[in-house]
Amino acid sequence: MTTPRPDAVAPHVNSVLFQMKWKAELRASGAMTPRVPVQFVAEQGRALRVIDIREKEELTGLMGHIPGSLWVPLERIAEVSQQLGPDMPVVLVSHSGRRAGLATQFLQALGMRYVAALSGGMLAWRNAGYSATRHSHIFERGLTTPTFVEEGPSDGPLTKAHIEQHVGDPSQVRWARLSALLMSGRRSCVDGRDEQGVIGTPGGDAGEFLLALASVERITGKTLDLRTVEEILLQELEVFGRFYMHTDTLAWGKLVASISSDRRLSNRPLPPLNDEAGWHAFLGHPAPESRSALMEHLLEPAHLGCGHLKLMLTKPEDYGVRPELVRSFLRAYHDLRWQGMPDLEFVTLEGVHDEAAVLSVYVEQELWDMSSIPLVSPSVGPKQVFVAHPQVAAKHRDHYVEFFRRLPHLVTLEPHHVEPLRTEMNAIANTQLGHTLQHLAKGLPLFEARFEGGDKVRVVEAGKV
Questions:
Q1: Which residue from 34, 226, 294, 311 has the least number of CB within 10 angstroms?
Q2: Alpha-carbon distance 228 to 207, whole Å?
Q3: What does DSSP say about strands 49-52 and 70-71: parallel, antiparallel, or unpaired?
Q4: What is the rounded CA–CA span in Å between residue 415 and residue 399?
Q5: Using an 8 Å Cβ cutoff, are 89 and 22 in contact?
């Protein structure tokens, strides 16, 4: 067993992207005491330390504690600053958040820069549909002990033993009810560079939305125009909430360089090339007169950091989606962002692909809306894995069928279209997943993690891509 690199235990807090995300959450809380919401903490995986400050008996009592968290009683709270230093991201947890808020203020006064209280405490955590544990293992872990100790190869593929250790670690797997994920969660891409513990599907919400639109076109025989696509996307946000699409630093750099050299924008005040925060702000809220030119840059395949969406646009014969439908979606997405729609997430993933396996996550039971779903971190030691949740994605497509049935003013879905639409979506999804893995994960080992309960999981070797 080897201790992971320090940068595998906590994020690069000097990263502009991490600072922006952290500050955005604190601003959104609107509180004098720094607080972050349950959803933010649940999705971070190992990206931050979760420290419970309640009394010992509370952690194994009825409320339980967050899996993978550490225990530091309130009277020893100064040890957090002394042992972890000023730049470790820390979230403090108490019953309702009051004690954690006071402890947060104290640690701030000691110089900790990235410390916040879990808003609403364990009450909010449980009310949001996330799981808790009453296991006494929390008392065996100290502040200087990594939240996990995980062995992984520095080079080459991962083995079954690596995956078994990973999915058996409570600090890497958090559970949430499917209904909670449908209401306030998001489907991220299978991309291993997203360190959050998430529900993975190719292209995330954007990929699923596009395959659903393409399926509707096939079943109804009608072509969706830009205005209809934008209206459907707006209705999607009203019904399902948060919507995820990602880029990466490589595509982002090409986008920024391309915009900077555009003569049409030469009379506009553009940020310096190396001002990452400035460019995020600029592209998040551009002046209306600049948007037409900027949209052209955003639609360029080289400027798309999601490999799945790029392949969908450039290889329509493999993916079954019209290129113009992809472009209509991208236009609608950015246009709604510029109009101030807060539910549209545009995430920038850092680095290059370094995945060493593909992991599909299943629950060994028939899913219903109250089923508990494991959120698995894609970081295994120093390596990454592509993480997909085929069961959950298929269940969400069932909800898409109902969603389109309730849009008669936008989509003419007759009763005899319902089952063919469901079948078509799943068929396109399987085809697209195969093509994307062939392009991005060729030769990597395939594993299935089959969860039989909160603490029982079976890993199956499923060949190679």
A1: 226
A2: 18
A3: parallel
A4: 15
A5: yes
| pLDDT at site 363 | 93
Location of structure tokens 């109902």: 402
What are the tens digits of pLDDT across the range 57-83?
999 999 999 988 899 999 999 999 999
Among candidate residues 229, 242, 241, 244, the one with its CA nearest the CA of residue 407: 229
What distance in Å separates the CA atoms of residue 87 and residue 22, rounded to the nearest whole number?
12
Is residue 273 classed as helix, strand or coil in its secondary structure?
coil
Q: Are strands 379-380 and 383-388 parallel, antiparallel or unpaired?
A: antiparallel
Q: What is the pLDDT of residue 262?
A: 94
pLDDT tens per residue across span 78-128:
999 999 989 889 999 999 999 999 999 999 999 999 999 999 999 999 998
- Residue 456: strand pairing partners: 453
- Helix (H) or strand (E) segment spanning residue 347: strand 344-349
DSSP string, 191-233: -TT--S-BEE-TTHHHHHHHHHHHHHHHHH-----HHHHHHHH
**Segment (H or E) for 102:** helix 98-109
